[in-house]
């Protein structure tokens, strides 16, 4: 549930959801979820490779990032930067980066010269070797060497 924002200025935000290299389907899903849970968008910035949503609740923004990763697979990063202090407490603004991938569950890919099938996408991806059937877990930061077949 979103906190009461009475008294906050219209541009108030606590977190930024950055969507990079994502399909229109993912962008639409994110917009619908933001609307469904009642998050207010303070600002939207469109970029050539994605979009930034400035949102009013850090916890819900982080949760939305996890939902995107579980549903579509992709790289997810959380960062926080010190914004200021209020009553002696540090106030942070959070950035949630979700970077999409160019393949989905069930696709055949090539990784380090070997052919695999994508079995699972979540925090990591699970690949199954085409010939041996051996399964391996791969982190999204290692996906630069993956080619879609």
Describe the structure using short key phrases.
2 domains; 149 residues; 5-stranded mixed sheet; alpha+beta; elongated; 10 strands; 5-stranded antiparallel sheet
Fold topology:
Blueprint: E1 15-20, H1 24-37, E2 41-47, E3 50-55, H2 58-72, E4 75-86, E5 89-99, E6 108-111, E7 114-121, E8 125-129, E9 135-138, E10 146-148
Parallel strand pairs: 1-5
Antiparallel strand pairs: 1-3, 2-3, 4-5, 6-7, 6-10, 7-8, 8-9
Task: Explain what the structure shows.
The chain has 149 residues and is of the alpha+beta class. It folds into two domains: 15-99, no CATH class; 108-148. The protein is 19% helix and 44% strand. It contains two helices and ten strands, in the order βαββαβββββββ. It has helices at 24-37, 58-72; strands spanning 15-20, 41-47, 50-55, 75-86, 89-99, 108-111, 114-121, 125-129, 135-138, 146-148. A five-stranded mixed sheet has the order 2-3-1-5-4, with helices on one face. A five-stranded antiparallel sheet has the order 9-8-7-6-10. Helix 1 (24-37) runs antiparallel to helix 2 (58-72). The relative contact order is 0.17.
Order of SSEs? EHEEHEEEEEEE
Oligomeric nature of the chains: single chain
Overall mean pLDDT stands at: 87
Strand order of the largest sheet: 2-3-1-5-4
Task: Give the gist of this structure.
With 149 residues, the chain is an alpha+beta fold.
């Amino acid at each position: 549930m979103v906190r009461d924002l009475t008294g906050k200025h219209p541009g108030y935000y606590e977190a930024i959801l950055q969507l990079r290299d994502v399909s229109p389907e993912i962008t639409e899903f994110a917009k619908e979820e933001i609307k469904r849970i009642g998050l207010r968008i303070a600002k939207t910035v469109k970029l050539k490779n994605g979009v930034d949503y400035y949102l009013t609740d850090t916890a819900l923004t982080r949760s939305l990032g996890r939902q995107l990763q579980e549903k579509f697979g992709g790289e997810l990063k959380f960062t926080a930067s010190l914004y200021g202090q209020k009553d002696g407490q540090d106030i942070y603004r959070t950035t949630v980066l979700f970077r999409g991938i160019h393949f989905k569950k069930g696709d055949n890919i090539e990784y380090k010269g070997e052919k695999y099938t994508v079995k699972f996408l979540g925090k990591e991806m699970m690949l199954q070797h085409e010939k041996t059937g051996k399964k391996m877990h791969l982190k999204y930061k290692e996906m630069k060497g993956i080619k879609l077949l």
